[in-house]
Specification:
853 residues, alpha/beta, 8-stranded mixed beta sheet, 6-stranded mixed beta sheet, 27 strands, 32% helix
Length: 853
């Protein structure tokens, strides 16, 4: 197998995401573990590593006795190509072991079209993509293959399109389910049970669906939120949600008829406010994050939110942190919530009116009036917000052209009503409604042609409106999402064919024309083209045209997901569809009477609503401490795999370590205060450093030894603090003190031919040193070609070693006040020009960064 360093190095994009060295990773004893899990997230690292469910389940599994859990993510295209060209299997990021050496691999399905990513990962692992082809060998035997399972919202709602690829599906919440599965695996492995018998045992576990055993009724699992597991991992590279996330409420009972998560996560379960406060306060210290988010399908329905938010705002004011809420209802957005949002940095606000008219909002059971929408926007603007993002949908049941125009009317009305407060800038997202399983609208039919026409209505209405940005979802993406999401096991060959033609999830955004065409070809090849085109041309008002008796007959027909028991009865969904067609609003059963959906009971539990505690007195706002009493200059080394961390990621890692150290760091002013940290000169990706410098400013006197004792233990392996000393506050900035940089690196021929003779290489170096000018044409930051003379920057060159395949050199370069210096890569180009051959650079190391006396 190819060595890890040959696969993951500076030659691929963002290699730091594959290192598995996050804060929170602990050594695992492979030999002592009886069951070895790998959570294999079918998205790139930046998405998967910031997913709260992924982090929580990883932490829970590693807390189980005799079990361990590692992680893997969808590799970017460049690494995938390396894996295939070298015949290397996809690996887990922490142990770096091939994924086919684990006992069980768990995929999270959060989107209908991400199944192609699962097949890509299975192929890179070297496993058959179909469950039926993985044999019957017992776990632990030499020829055994890992069990492959899926979980997540998409897998729970309708696993049938993907069922052929998985040995089993874990339905619902996994916090309690996965440890139970682990115990079954451990017993089966000890007993040497064949795979088929193990799967029969797993099918007896509540919440486990084994497709090979047929359509048996399976009830999804429900678990209590565990907020203290949220701080399990802190990545060193920037992720999509680069903050601490703590769940405050699981489940939503608002009853929006289009919303699948709201139906699949009932009952609603509030987290105790003291647990939330403790998890956030402890988590911010342990992780060093500068931002935290409180997570729920509808944060505003957590009645303790104002009290919790104010308490956290008061406690964390001196830590310069900010709070964000991913989802909130505009009808509950008040001054208390406005106060707690943002902190030192006030970001954007997002609300989802969903529809532009009151009639349509009643049909979808949104429970929002025009007056509440206006009041929420006014509250936001009076609290300083000027940019607001609004989500709308088109294609909802019962929608007419007047309802589509209502979206534009809403925009015009809001801007007119807010004119006396200030200019309201809106960012609209117009989504195409796609019916989802387990919702009252699961029987609805949509039309691609009508989507296009109604988008055209809005484009015409919005044309010429200033300070308005509108994003539309591509209708082809919506049609395919609907076709797959409500499909059955006949779609497995369609998904396989689409994957084999390169139509992965990312491809939808890279080349939607080719990707959509590949999916359509796959559908036709499976003999389902007529069904897809029928869906595309679906009758917009088909359900409305039927009589109630005809609708009852239609709704009683079997659906591919009928054996998945979400708790919400199919009869109730049908009845709620009738209420929708009559625009009848159903109250939220967390705060009003029971809606009799079928969820609450001994099996799935009941709504748990925490009464709102008193809101604490709001402490006066304080700016982050910005006084500069002392400054320390620190010499550090960045070696080994830390060289694969980019400069920006390095600075982010240092900022978080400083927060965890609780040293009295001074912050900058402005909109986004940051610790006063200056790294002398950025290193190129892949370069090691033996003696670099950084400066830190503090609000109190900090002794060098105190800094070394508090900060050094918090830094990852490969980043070492070598020494520290005080610097007068009035001395020049570190960047102004740089004199020269000393490099050591190797050059190799790019092709098969050896390097020129040793004497010729020495002569070429002499020519560079003796030249009056060293002109090199390069692109500037604006992409324009510029010819620069680099000779004034060259101080000296050192000859270390020559062989036909490698030349080892040293470079001393002047560092100008603006940070410009002669880079080793520029020397590579200059030397290659004189030798008449193409050279490549390896083993780059900055031996020393010299400061002016």
């Amino acid at each position: 197998m190819t060595a890890f360093a040959e696969l993951v190095n500076a030659g691929i994009s963002r290699p730091g995401r594959y290192l598995g060295n996050e804060l929170g990773v602990e050594p695992r004893d492979w030999q002592a573990a009886s069951i070895r899990w790998a959570l294999t997230y079918p998205e790139v690292y930046e998405v998967g590593a910031s997913n709260l469910g992924h982090i929580i389940l990883y932490s829970i599994l590693n807390a189980q006795p005799r079990q361990l859990c590692d992680r893997a993510y969808l590799p970017a295209t460049d690494l995938a190509e390396r894996l295939r060209s070298t015949g290397s299997p996809l690996f887990a990021v922490e142990s770096r072991r091939p994924l086919n050496s684990f006992d069980i691999l768990g995929f999270s399905l959060s989107y209908e079209l991400s199944a192609t990513n699962v097949l890509e990962m299975l192929d890179l692992i070297g496993l058959p993509i179909y469950a039926r082809d993985r044999g019957d060998a017992p776990l632990g035997s030499p020829d055994a293959r890992p069990l492959i399972f899926a979980g997540g919202q998409t897998a729970t709602s309708n696993p049938e399109p993907y069922a052929s690829f998985f040995d089993f599906i874990a339905l619902g919440d996994g916090e309690e389910l996965l440890p139970e599965i682990g115990l079954v695996l451990e017993e089966a492995k000890t007993a040497g049970l064949p795979r088929s018998e193990l799967l029969r045992d797993l099918a007896a576990v509540p919440g486990v669906y084994v497709p090979a055993l047929g359509h048996r009724r399976v009830v999804r699992r429900v678990a209590t939120p565990m907020p203290h597991y949220a701080m399990g991992l802190v990545p060193h590279v920037e992720t999509v949600h680069d903050r601490l996330t703590v769940e405050i409420r699981r489940g939503c009972t608002r009853g929006c008829r289009f919303c699948q998560p709201g139906m699949l996560t009932r009952p609603a379960r509030d987290v105790d406010p003291e647990e939330v406060v403790e998890a956030v306060e402890t988590g911010m210290v342990r992780t060093g994050y500068s931002d935290f988010s409180l997570l729920s399908l509808s944060c505003s329905d957590y009645l303790a939110l104002p009290a919790v938010g104010v308490e956290l705002r008061n406690r964390l004011q001196d830590h310069n942190v900010s709070l964000s809420l991913p989802s909130q209802r505009i009808d509950r957005f008040d001054n208390n919530i406005a106060h707690i949002l943002g902190g030192t940095r006030q970001g954007g606000l997002t609300f989802a009116p969903e529809a532009g008219t009151q009639r349509m909002r009643d049909i979808v059971n949104k429970g929002l009036t025009d007056q509440e929408l206006s009041a929420g926007i006014e509250t936001a603007m009076r609290n300083g917000w000027r940019k607001v993002k609004l989500y709308f949908m088109i294609g909802l049941p019962g929608e007419t052209d007047a309802d589509v125009h209502g979206i534009a009317d809403t925009v015009e009305r809001l801007r007119f009503e807010m004119r006396d407060i200030g200019r309201l800038e809106l960012n609209l997202t117009i989504s195409n409604f796609t019916p989802k399983p387990h919702t009252p609208f699961q029987w609805h039919s949509v039309s691609t042609a009508e989507f296009k026409r109604r988008q055209g209505i809005l484009r015409q209405r919005f044309a010429g409106m200033r300070f308005l940005k509108v994003n539309y979802t591509d209708v082809r993406l919506s049609a395919m999402e609907d076709f797959i999401g409500r499909g059955d096991q006949r779609l497995a060959p369609v998904i396989e064919a689409a994957w084999r033609s390169g139509a992965g999830m990312d491809a939808w955004f890279d080349n939607i024309e080719r990707t959509h065409g590949a999916w359509c070809e796959a559908i036709d090849a499976a003999g389902l083209g007529g069904r897809y085109r029928e869906l595309e041309l679906g009758s917009w008002a088909e359900l409305q045209a039927l009589t109630p008796e005809q609708r009852r007959q239609r709704c009683s027909e079997p659906l591919p997901w009928d054996h998945i028991d979400s708790g919400v009865s199919k009869q109730w969904l049908q009845e709620d569809l009738e209420r929708a067609l009559e625009a009848v609003v159903v109250p939220d059963c967390s705060f009003d009477g029971c809606s009799h959906c079928g969820v609450c009971g001994d099996g799935l539990g009941h709504n748990v609503v925490v009464p709102p505690p008193p809101i604490p007195a709001i402490d006066p706002p304080r700016k982050p401490p910005s006084e500069q009493v002392g400054r320390l200059r620190v010499r550090f080394a960045k070696t080994g795999e830390m060289a694969l961390l980019s400069h920006l990621d390095l600075v982010r890692m240092l900022e978080r370590a400083l927060r965890r150290s609780q040293l009295p760091v001074s912050f900058t002013g402005g909109f986004h205060p940051l610790p006063r940290l200056q790294v002398a000169l950025a290193l190129p990706l892949g370069a090691e450093a033996d003696s670099d410098w950084l400066d830190l400013s503090f609000t109190e006197a900090v002794q060098p030894a105190q800094l070394m004792d508090r900060l050094a233990p918090l830094l990852p392996e490969g980043f070492s603090l070598l020494e520290a000393h005080g610097v007068p506050m009035k001395s020049p900035a570190l960047s102004q003190m740089l004199h020269s940089a000393h490099w050591r690196f190797c050059l190799q021929p790019s092709g098969a031919d050896p390097l020129p003779a040793e004497r010729r290489c020495q002569e070429a170096l002499g020519e560079l040193l003796g030249a009056e000018a060293l002109l090199l044409e390069e692109l500037d930051r604006q992409g324009r070609r510029r010819r620069r003379d680099l000779r004034p920057l060259l101080l000296d060159l050192h000859w270390h070693h020559w062989s036909p395949q490698q030349l080892e050199l040293g470079l001393e370069t002047l560092v100008q006040a603006n940070g410009r210096s002669l880079k080793p890569d520029q020397l590579r180009q200059l030397l290659g020009q004189r030798l008449g051959c193409e050279l490549q650079q390896t083993q780059l190391r900055r031996v020393a960064l010299k400061l002016a006396c």
